[in-house]
Amino acid sequence: MDRQPAPAPEDHRTRVAAERRERMHSRLVESALLVFGQRGVDASIIDELISTAGVSRGTFYNYFRTNEDVLVAVSVAVSNEMLRVVDPFAHAEPDPAARIAVGMRLFLGLAEEFPALGAFLSRGGVRVLRGNGLINEYLPRDLIQGRDSGRFPIAETAPAFDMVVGSTLAALHRMQSGGLPDGHASTLASLALLALGLPADEAESIAQRPLLKLELAPDSLLARAGGGRK
Amino acid sequence: MDRQPAPAPEDHRTRVAAERRERMHSRLVESALLVFGQRGVDASIIDELISTAGVSRGTFYNYFRTNEDVLVAVSVAVSNEMLRVVDPFAHAEPDPAARIAVGMRLFLGLAEEFPALGAFLSRGGVRVLRGNGLINEYLPRDLIQGRDSGRFPIAETAPAFDMVVGSTLAALHRMQSGGLPDGHASTLASLALLALGLPADEAESIAQRPLLKLELAPDSLLARAGGGRK
Amino acid sequence: MDRQPAPAPEDHRTRVAAERRERMHSRLVESALLVFGQRGVDASIIDELISTAGVSRGTFYNYFRTNEDVLVAVSVAVSNEMLRVVDPFAHAEPDPAARIAVGMRLFLGLAEEFPALGAFLSRGGVRVLRGNGLINEYLPRDLIQGRDSGRFPIAETAPAFDMVVGSTLAALHRMQSGGLPDGHASTLASLALLALGLPADEAESIAQRPLLKLELAPDSLLARAGGGRK
Amino acid sequence: MDRQPAPAPEDHRTRVAAERRERMHSRLVESALLVFGQRGVDASIIDELISTAGVSRGTFYNYFRTNEDVLVAVSVAVSNEMLRVVDPFAHAEPDPAARIAVGMRLFLGLAEEFPALGAFLSRGGVRVLRGNGLINEYLPRDLIQGRDSGRFPIAETAPAFDMVVGSTLAALHRMQSGGLPDGHASTLASLALLALGLPADEAESIAQRPLLKLELAPDSLLARAGGGRK
DNA sequence: CATGAATGAGGGTTCATTCAT
DNA sequence: CATGAATGAACCCTCATTCAT
Questions:
Q1: Neighbouring chains of D at 3+ CB pairs within 8 Å?
Q2: Phi/psi at A136 (nearest 5 deg)?
């Protein structure tokens, strides 16, 4: 019995260590989301980050090498979270116009419900959206589908893209400095659909549709770092 | 001669000194515009600024007290320059829809023609537009006039404002990363007018109108710091 | 079978464990020799050492407590290795002059043949030779014997010691930056014998004698870490 | 009179500033000599350097960028100082054998008289002598001249170079750990001349010649940082 | 007012060492 | 004993700001 080769001790230790690393990484990303939102994405963040996360200076450098590294990690995590939320809607809804309107409203809705997310996105601006699937994959696909199907009588998608994304970001900024009036997001979506060529009544009716309640996984980045729902 | 009663010699010296101050101030603002555009508005700027302007560290502090001071000064100067360009158009054009379309196109046109300006506005983002008369006075006025006159069938001006400003800034960012395709600005303006409620043909025809050539004073900030026209 | 009375199982396990410790210790010392040679004896070494040796950080601290500890261990090991090589020659040769000449040539010969050793001795300089038996026991003994027997007409051994050791180390440094020309070691030994008072022809003939080929134990530190013979 | 154009104010200010820079540079080099001698040339030195020199952290970086920068600056300064001392002797003495013996003794004499210099040279070892004119220009020249004139019956200068330099450095190390016995330097020089081929009596008589007292400029690096004469 | 050397707070980064698993 | 994540002291470096000239 004492000749038994110790049942894969490495495996166990390795797995435990990997899990610990994973948890610490998440903890740092969560804290970074908060701090970036409060201080801006260009701020020198490390001191505040480690004190927020309650870890040592050295630990930070075991996970990231630069400020920029952290920003990228947070951006990726945020993008993934948002996709997880939006994906079900996107698959259920066949109309690109509706998908765009819902996308704008969900984006703003998330930012409103999770102030940390809103602050981060607002502070980070375009830089933080570089790899955002919601914006860089879903939206272009919807615009193209809408144009090709004749629903959007537009020649180019680029101006439409700028219009949808720009409008939404402008509203996000407005939210950060005082909050959005009731119905702002819906009205904005309505304007966007108008611009894309829908008739006024249809634009309005699509943009006003009730939005299903968001469902987040309990271990979600937003749920944990979001500062709780508004 | 300089032994004469010296008719108010202080006046003369004072005036000369004031002019010198004025010139140095402009020189610093011009250099700052360039440097902010290249390095971003959050960068540590002073070293590069004074070497660009060719003055000493101490001189800088005779004119500004902090980094932020400089940013404000540049923003104000830029805003004034832009107003000086746009004002004639604004007074000549009675239709608020046309004024908005022209405003968007001129804004993007200036940024394109003067890369330093474009870079500065893009890098500075919203922060730099805080006191911009073009955006914060002219645009709201036009939107209200359009709504009140029934030309824009909208209830609120805020979403429309976000849409116009956001679209334009998104196009500005696009310009900074690769330039705008031909006709992008006009098409964008056309989308904006559509969103504001104009019929498609009218939106298009207004947005496509030829734009008068910009005229800059020879001593203009843009003419001097803009790196020359594109 | 393993249910047998197990004749002194502790003995066996203890012995196996001791052998494992011994092997790990050697592995660390070998790696340290390499790393000290490449990066210098003052470099921060532990990271590179453990990755070279392929062990974990914690394991290192099971064998050494500080950087300096490792340096001492390597120095001792190196000194012992060198003695093992030189001892046979020293016992076989009755003439102190010949022993000194052979010692200088063997020292340089080993450093040349085992680059890792050469780099280590050169980088470590005097610090690493503190406990070196070859230098601190054999050489003084030879000098005293030569002086007392009248072969070296010198009053003090200290200057002679400095001359022999210093010359050899200078040649070692030369070797590290470009290698030694043919015959350099022999000529140097000849100069040393001249300085010790031998007639020119005798000095030369002793210093030129052919050197027996070095023989290393196959498990020798040098054989394993030396990077193979040159 | 008040129209007078201020007689070259820049010249004056510029000159004063340059002198200030010069003085600060010297102050830093002096302090660095001390600190390198105490802590070794590989030590992290900046903190101690600035506190020794009594300047701020920032000032250091106005003059040097790295640890290595400082080491080079000190090495150059030391080399120049030593040359200034040795040069008169070198020019007055036609015999290369005598020049070499005097060189060795002066080198060791300086190191003994100015402990800071001795410590620095000893700690820095060969690295610090890279650009040393005394060693890299004067000595090779003397060896070649001696060989070509037949005074040194040697075929190669390289082993002789190693012997002279190595012996001297070994004595320097001995000095650092307990000081040199009386006559050590002279005896060492005598051994060196013997090795170079001089007859014993001549070697001895040259190496024993009284050495003229060293004269240092009062603003010399050694006089100021040397910790005073021994 | 212009100059530029000096300052030092603020932040960045490494690495020897500890310790729970 | 082996492992490797976590620690924090000790460095490194920049740059906004001051101030004597």
A1: C
A2: -90, -15
- Examine residue B2 and state whether it is found in any structural domain, yes or no: no
Give the domain extent around B26.
9-225
How many residues does this entry show for chain C? 230
- Between CA D31 and CA D51 the distance in angstroms is 9
Among A124-138, B100-114, B131-145, C157-171, the range scoring the smallest mean pLDDT is A124-138
Whether residue C58 lies inside any domain: the answer is: yes
Q: What is the pLDDT of residue A13?
A: 65
Residue B158 lies in a domain: yes
Interface test with D, best of C154, C163, C168 (most D CBs within 10 A): C163
CA at B47, C1' at F15: how many angstroms apart?
Answer: 8
Rounded Cα distance, B12 and D3, in Å: 13
> Based on the number of CB atoms within 10 Å of its own CB, is D43 exposed (0-12), middle (13-18) or buried (19 or more)?
middle
CA A111 to chain centroid, in Å, comes to: 8
Looking at chain B, which residue has its C-alpha nearest residue A168? B166
Among chain D, residues having any CB pair with chain C shorter than 8 Å are 40, 42, 125-126, 153-156, 158-163, 165-171, 173-174, 181, 184, 187-188, 190-192, 194-197, 200
Question: What are the start-end ranges of the E strands in chain C?
Answer: none
Nearest nucleotide to A28 (CA to C1') is F6
Three-state SS at D79: helix
Q: Determine the distance from the C-alpha atom of residue D77 to the mean position of all C-alpha atoms in its chain, rounded to a whole number.
A: 8
Which residues of B are less than 8 Å from A169 in CB distance? 166, 169-170
Question: Is B34 domain-assigned?
Answer: yes
- Taking the C1' atom of every nucleotide in all shown strands and the CA of A60, the nearest one is F6
What's the average model confidence in pLDDT over B120-137?
91
Nearest CA among A6, A13, A11, A52 for reference residue A29: A52
Provide the pLDDT for residue D8. 46
Helix axes D158-176, C158-176, angle to 10 degrees: 120
Two structure tokens written together for D210: 């009284």
3-state secondary structure (DSSP) of residue A153? coil
Output phi, psi for B138, to 5 deg: -65, -50
DSSP summary character for residue D41 = T
Taking residues B213-229, report their average pLDDT.
Answer: 70
- Residue B197 in contact with residue B100, Cβ under 8 Å? no
Per residue in D111-165, pLDDT tens? 999 999 999 999 998 889 988 989 999 999 999 999 999 999 999 999 999 999 9
H or E stretch covering B171: helix B158-176
Q: Say how many domains are in chain C.
A: 1
User: Residue C7: which pLDDT band, with cuts at 50, 70 and 90?
Assistant: low
Give the domain CATH number at A156.
1.10.357.10
Token duo for residue D182: 């009386």
Taking an 8 Å cut-off on Cβ atoms, the answer to whether B162 and A181 are in contact is no
pLDDT score for D224: 76
Task: Name the nucleotide with the smallest C1'–CA separation from A56.
Answer: F7
pLDDT for A12 equals 67
D55, D24 Cβ separation under 8 angstroms: yes
Displacement of CA D154 from its chain's centroid (Å): 28
- pLDDT single digits (tens) D54-85: 999 999 999 999 999 999 999 999 999 999 88
Q: How far is the CA of D44 from the C1' of E7 (A)?
A: 22
Mean pLDDT of C68-81: 94
Alpha-carbon gap: D162 to the closest alpha carbon of chain C (Å) = 5
Which among A125, A158, A170 has CB closest to B162?
A170
Model confidence pLDDT, tens digit, residues A141-175: 999 999 999 999 999 999 999 999 999 999 999 99
